[in-house]
Write a structure and sequence with these properties.
- This protein folds into two domains: about 15-100, Sandwich (Immunoglobulin-like), CATH 2.60.40; about 120-739, Maltoporin, Chain A, CATH 2.40.170.
- A hairpin with a 4-residue loop joins strand 27 (about 480-495) and strand 28 (about 500-510).
- The relative contact order is 0.11.
- The strands form five sheets. It has a 22-stranded antiparallel beta barrel. A five-stranded mixed sheet has the order 8-14-15-12-13.
- By secondary structure, it is mainly beta.
- The chain is globular and about 75 Å long.
- The chain is about 5% helix and about 55% strand.
């Protein structure tokens, strides 16, 4: 290993002192006008700049090699260019005006390409756009992405659902590493604050080739905030107020970059009272969250590295029934007290025609759950708030320590082939400290090796790959289990005509049973059931076919994404008819299953009214076992229609306004232990823009959700069995002041 590292360092040193630079000019393709403030960005190097008033730019201190450059500006089609450095030629780019939103590089797939060039279909949304729609939390915001929903327990606890699959079937990545926070629990949320996240990417389908076990259903990839461009600094302050919960969220951040060193930090404080429906407040949906993110980076010509740290501390009330009506923000019993530490390191060594990426991570999840003791119920008021200074002993206390690594080597390009090989792994230790024990002490070790290639043909792009994985689970009580799997993927992207693009992807995925499924034996607060594990469970294995068709011209975009997903040994919970301490007993069982459906829609911006946008999308998914029973927690079909306008005035920049109607249909395809859910319509609207205040930018957003104050229940709400409604009308006022 030492010899290998020494060779890599020797190769790197040969490039350290090369002082390469590029320069160019960017113009409007129709008028030849020089364009100012165009963004020029190297995704692999994470370096960028902007054009000056003459449309010119210079980027210095670049290492030799082949790199993609991204040219983007609001109102113009994003362009990507592959360049070989060193180069003395002036780069000349003509940007084409368009009403279509700017594209960004997709980070969650290995070759880091624009979505229009990507073989896999990946959805990407900026956090700025999700916030503009009035999202209260991150898990709330991702439901604005077609094909993505959230299983919720109140307002503060939510976990992603991608095309009907959730929990350990959907892998979450943050800061470039996999997030591990006891996500097996249906009442366990993401544990990530939206502050300091730049965008969200969603891979809808098996991603085991890229990420191993637990990516059977897809990946939610959270891209952290970028560092500032070289020799630039910026800061901002953001505040949000939410009328429904009388809640607020505040954050402050600063970042600065020199020629080689860069750093950033961002802090956040959020508090909410119980959310309100048309008729009542839902007791103990209140919560408090504190979040801090920081990063430091260093870069020279052929080497870059960065270290990021995130600490998130949350106190989350666990709702059980509609009781005391209060506007207080201190959670009642029962509640969760969770501290999550995320350490990540991301380094890249650049060689003349290849590179080595090394990502390392450590996550320390400290989860406590407090509940009322039955013997004290006669002495205290049933809903009396606990004293902040009172010393309480956690009924459930688990610590999860996860170390993971991801090493990938991008081979020199060989003709039409781009190839990446890599190894990934994880060591995870679960420990119990409370009086209750849902899952035992255990150690889990993952190891995987992969190879994938992107092949460029004249009329098509092909991506293929294969991977082997091993998971070994060592339980302190003596249970030892080993799971192995081979997986592969094949995808083709081609342009049927100048305006029609099609993507076909075939992929297998797998998921080893988690500790809860193998060994669980206890009651779960928030779900009100007693779960018993099954040590004889086998790995889930699936095969999914995806077909995506896209039509795009200057004024209209149409898309149709269909999928069929066959899952062997699908693991699910089923009641056995008995009770423990009043909670129904649920057992873990297996059966083959299938899921199918898709997302369909269009985006119209008619000429000459390019400022006017009509958007419509429909999403549907059906999940069934082989015995004909429907799978639980499958989201209802929904239709979303949006009318949006964009405008610029001398006194306002990036102005917009929208009206949205989301129609969720009745869910009749339910599992044997679920009930049907009625359909409903939710009306939303909002507007915003940027102003110059004291020579700095002030961005203001106003949005309203559920404007008709509709009483409704989402099929994926954990409060549905108790007949508790989702949140009523909410007005969000937000602002960001840039320094």
């Amino acid at each position: 290993m030492k010899l290998f590292l020494n060779i890599l360092l020797l190769l790197a040193i040969t490039n350290i002192y090369s002082q390469n630079k590029i320069h160019g000019i960017i113009t409007d393709a129709n008028t030849n006008e020089k364009l100012e403030f165009v963004n020029i960005y190297f995704p692999e190097l994470e370096k960028g700049t902007t054009t000056n008033e003459n449309g010119k730019f210079i980027v210095e201190n670049l290492s030799s090699g082949n790199y993609n450059i991204l040219f983007s500006m609001v109102g113009y089609k994003t362009q990507s260019l592959l360049i070989t450095i060193p180069s003395n030629d002036e780069i000349k780019i003509n940007l084409v005006p368009t009403a279509i939103e700017m594209e960004s590089i997709i980070i969650s797939t290995p070759f880091h390409k624009l979505q229009s060039d990507n073989v896999m279909k990946v959805e990407q949304r900026s956090l700025k756009d999700l916030k503009a729609n009035g999202a209260v939390t991150l898990s709330d915001g991702i439901t604005n992405i077609a094909g993505v929903e959230s299983v919720t327990t109140g307002l503060s606890i939510g976990k992603p659902v991608i095309r009907g699959l959730s929990s350990n079937r959907v892998l979450v990545y943050t800061q470039g590493i996999r997030l591990e926070n006891q996500q097996f629990g249906d009442e366990h949320g993401l544990g990530v604050n939206s502050t300091g996240i730049e965008s969200v990417e969603v891979i809808k389908g098996p991603a085991s080739l890229l990420y191993g076990s637990d990516a059977l259903g897809g990946v939610l990839y959270l891209n952290p905030e970028r560092f500032a461009n070289n020799n630039e600094s910026s800061g901002d302050f953001r505040g949000d107020f939410y009328s429904n919960t009388l809640g607020y969220s505040t954050s402050v951040g600063f970042k600065s970059s020199g020629e080689h060193f860069k750093f950033l930090f961002r802090g956040n404080l959020t508090e909410h009272a119980d959310y309100e429906t048309k008729d009542y407040r839902v007791t103990n949906t209140r919560f408090r969250e504190q979040d801090f993110k920081a990063g430091v980076g260093y870069q020279i010509n052929s080497f870059k590295t960065e270290f990021r740290y995130n600490i998130n501390h949350s106190k989350l009330g666990i709702p059980e029934e509609v009781g005391v009506q209060s506007k207080n923000k201190t959670p009642l019993l029962p509640y969760q007290d969770i501290t999550n530490h995320v350490f990540s390191s991301k380094s890249t060594l650049f060689f003349n025609d290849s590179k080595l990426d090394i990502n390392l991570g450590f996550i320390y999840n400290d989860r406590k759950e407090f509940e009322e003791h039955h013997e004290e119920e006669e002495e205290e008021e049933e809903h009396e708030e606990h004293d902040e200074d009172e010393v309480l002993e956690a009924a459930l206390h688990m610590k999860l320590k996860t170390a993971n690594y991801d090493v990938k080597y991008s081979l020199p390009k060989l003709g039409k082939f781009e190839t990446i090989v890599g190894v990934q792994g994880m060591n995870q230790v679960n420990s119990n400290y409370g009086e209750e024990e849902l899952i035992p002490d255990a150690t889990t070790n993952d190891f995987g090796v992969l190879a994938t290639s992107h092949i460029h043909f004249d009329k098509a792009d092909v991506q293929l790959g294969a991977r082997y994985d091993n998971r070994y689970v060592d339980v302190a009580s003596g249970l030892n289990k080993s799971f192995n799997s081979f997986n592969g993927a094949l995808g083709v992207k081609t342009n049927l005509t100048e305006n029609i693009t099609t993507r076909i992807n075939l992929a297998t995925g797998f998921r080893a049973p988690n500790l809860s499924e193998l060994t669980s034996n206890g009651s779960h607060e928030g779900t009100n059931r007693y779960e018993i594990g099954n040590s004889n469970l086998k790995s889930e294995q699936n095969f999914q076919t995806d077909l995506a068709l896209e039509f795009q011209n200057e004024h209209i975009e149409l898309f149709a994404n269909g999928f069929y997903n066959k899952v062997n040994n699908y693991i699910f919970l089923s009641p056995d008819g008995t009770f423990v301490d009043g909670d129904p007993v649920f057992l873990y069982l297996q059966d083959d299953a299938k899921l199918y459906g898709g997302e369909f829609g269009f985006h119209l911006h008619p000429h000459p009214l390019d400022w006017l946008h009509f958007e419509s999308s429909f999403e549907t998914v059906t999940g069934k076992q082989n015995n004909g029973n429907y799978l639980p927690l499958i989201p209802a079909n929904s239709l979303t229609n949006i009318v949006r306008i964009e405008f610029e005035k001398p006194w306002i920049e990036n102005g917009y306004a929208f009206v949205k109607l989301r129609s969720t249909f009745k869910q009749n395809n339910v599992s044997p232990f679920e009930t049907n859910t009625n359909g409903y319509n939710l009306l939303s609207a909002g507007l915003g823009g940027s102003f110059s205040v004291f020579k700095n930018e002030l961005s203001v957003t106003i949005s309203g959700n559920n404007l008709t104050n509709k009483s409704y229940i989402n099929h994926l709400s954990r409060l549905k069995p108790d007949g508790i409604f989702n949140m009523g009308r909410n007005i969000n006022l937000g602002f960001t002041y840039s320094l």
